[in-house]
Each structure stands twice: as structure tokens, then as C-alpha cells.
Specification:
The protein is built from nine helices and seven strands; from the N terminus they run αβαβαββαβααβαααβ. By secondary structure, the chain is α/β, with parallel strands linked by helices. It has a domain at 4-150 and 174-206 and 265-274: Vaccinia Virus protein VP39 (Rossmann fold, 3-Layer(aba) Sandwich), CATH 3.40.50.150. The chain has a seven-stranded mixed β-sheet. The structure holds S-adenosylmethionine. S-adenosylmethionine binds next to loops. The site of S-adenosylmethionine has 18 residues, from loops.
């Protein structure tokens, strides 16, 4: 898990904006007050979607009360989400270890199945999509975000790694095809049970500005786990501590010392309803 400073930054700047756009696109923000909402957030991480729902709606004052289940394959993520649920005092929110590829919920359970930046990291996103639609109620909403293209921080990190002679990270460890919006569309269209007349796939970008290289490298330490995911212990011993200083040198060479610059992340926001019969 990244440090809380890093995590909070990534959540606020790279996580919340597309998550809010996802909630808007599913219609969840304007759901009629008396609809009984039963929401599943797959690959919840540290509870981003539950947090944005609470910030953007009066979910705790609905009748009948809404239910949110946060699921993630990582027990660490679930423990962190449980702490957050407790600290924030969210009502009707629970967290459980759930593999989105085999959720084990009965058919037709949820009004909404959501997933922010999660399907791409699963070995079988197609299987997870199929299971997500299976557990949706008739006419229920599927909604997810996915990275579109390689995130804007990757190129500079790769330059730094090459200069160190370290293994390249090249791109986040997504499943083949899952940075390509055309491929992702084809996967959604091939998922049984969706009403493709309701399918919306919209681009969404976040362009985050930094005052100087160090401001970004202090945050980017939170990416070290992703960058070194496939490294050996020896490689970590040799290179880990050198990555951020080298990245700072790369960025200062490119943008100037003490000069501002931006990092852009492109997403797609995908929503569709399950067929109603
Ligand atoms: C990039 S994080 C996104 C977290 C959160 N949704 C957010 O937007 O902040 C991806 C998450 O997917 C989870 N994950 C990976 N494979 C999964 C699977 N098969 N089922 C459920 N969660 C999975 C990881 O544990 C991680 O927490």
C-alpha cells in the first residue's frame, strides 16, 4: 500500500474526477429517492466509489436505505476500506474480499455494479464483465472506468529506468488490450445480457499540474509498487532508492528546474444497462 499522502493525492486528483463522472453517467446521482439502491463496487481499493457517493449524494438519508458492498480481491484493501467505513460513519456500507471474476452473488442481485480502474488489472476482465452483468437486476446499471492509453507518467519513468539500467516498467500491468478503448468496447459488446442501445463510452481526461519536479516525485513514490511489480529482490536492492531521484533529474531536464508541468491521464467511462427482459 502507498503512503497515505501519496494515496490521498492519487485519490483526489486521479481517482475522484473520473469516479464522479462515472456516477453521473450511470444516473446514480439522480436516482429517484424511493428507489431501493443495492450497489456493488468491484475492485474497491480503499473505498473510492463509496466515498464519492457519500460526497456527491445524500445516500445516508434515503428510504428505503441504500446498501453498498465494497469488494476487492486484496484483504489489505478490504481492511483499509473497513477502517474508512468506521471512521466516516457510513451507513449500510460493508466490505468483503470478492474476486470480481467469480463474485458468487446470486443472479439479479444489484441495481448497480460499478468498477473504477479495476477490470483492466484482472487476468480475465471478460469473465468479470460477464459475472457483473449476471448479478445485476434486470435493467440494472453496469458502470466502469478504464485507462485509455498509457498513463502520462509512464514515459518519463521509463526514461529514468533506462538511464539507471533498471528493468523497464513500460506500462501498468494491465491485461492485453485493456488500454485500448476500441478493444474494451468490443469486450463490452460481447458480454451477454447487456442492452447495447444503452451503451455509452465517453472519454474523460485528468490533467494534473505540479509546481516543480520534486512535487511530483514526492507523490510518485506511491507508484513504486506498480513500477517494480515484476522485479527480483536483487533488482529492488540495486535500483529502488534511485528511481525517484533519477526521475526528478529527467523531469528537470525536460521542463526546467523549479518549473511547472502537467501529467495527463486519459480514461473512458463505460455505462450500459442489463436487458430488461
Ligand atoms: C487501480 S486499483 C483501483 C482501486 C479503486 N477502485 C480506485 O479507483 O481507487 C485496482 C484494484 O483492483 C483490485 N483487483 C485486482 N484484481 C481483482 C479481482 N480479480 N477482483 C477484485 N478486485 C481486484 C486490486 O486489489 C486493486 O485494489
Amino acid at each position: 500500500m502507498p503512503s497515505s499522502i501519496s494515496y490521498n493525492f492519487f485519490e483526489k486528483h486521479f481517482g475522484e474526477p473520473p469516479a464522479l463522472a462515472l456516477l453521473q453517467q450511470t444516473g446514480l446521482l439522480n436516482a429517484p429517492k424511493d428507489n431501493a439502491l443495492k450497489i456493488l463496487d468491484h475492485a474497491c481499493g480503499m473505498g473510492l466509489i463509496a466515498s464519492v457517493i457519500h460526497e456527491a449524494t445524500d445516500i445516508d438519508r434515503r428510504f428505503p436505505p441504500a446498501e453498498i458492498i465494497c469488494g476487492d480481491i486484496s484483504s489489505n484493501a478490504i481492511r483499509a476500506t473497513e477502517v474508512r467505513i468506521e471512521q466516516c460513519g457510513w451507513k449500510g456500507v460493508t466490505a468483503n474480499v470478492i474476486d470480481a471474476q467469480d463474485s458468487k452473488f446470486p443472479d439479479n442481485t444489484f441495481t448497480h455494479v460499478l468498477c473504477s480502474a479495476g477490470y483492466a488489472l484482472m487476468p480475465r476482465p471478460d469473465v468479470a464483465l460477464k459475472d457483473s452483468v449476471r448479478i445485476l437486476r434486470l435493467a440494472g446499471s453496469l458502470g466502469f472506468t478504464a485507462w485509455s492509453g498509457v498513463p502520462g507518467w509512464v514515459e518519463d519513468v521509463n526514461v529514468a529506468l533506462a538511464r539507471l539500467g533498471a528493468p523497464m516498467c513500460a506500462k501498468p500491468p494491465v491485461t492485453e488490450g485493456w488500454l485500448d478503448p476500441i478493444f474494451i468496447r468490443s469486450q463490452v459488446e460481447a458480454t451477454p445480457g447487456l442492452d447495447l442501445n444503452t451503451l455509452k463510452i465517453k472519454p474523460f481526461s485528468v490533467d494534473c499540474r505540479f509546481a516543480c519536479a520534486q512535487e511530483w516525485t514526492d507523490i510518485a513514490v506511491g507508484l513504486l509498487g506498480v513500477i517494480t511489480a515484476n522485479w527480483t529482490e536483487n533488482q529492488k536492492t540495486e535500483f529502488l532508492a534511485k528511481i525517484m531521484p533519477e526521475l526528478r533529474t529527467v523531469l528537470e531536464g525536460k521542463h526546467g528546474v523549479g518549473k511547472p508541468f502537467g501529467i495527463k491521464l486519459d480514461f473512458i467511462i463505460v455505462t450500459a444497462n442489463k436487458k430488461s427482459d
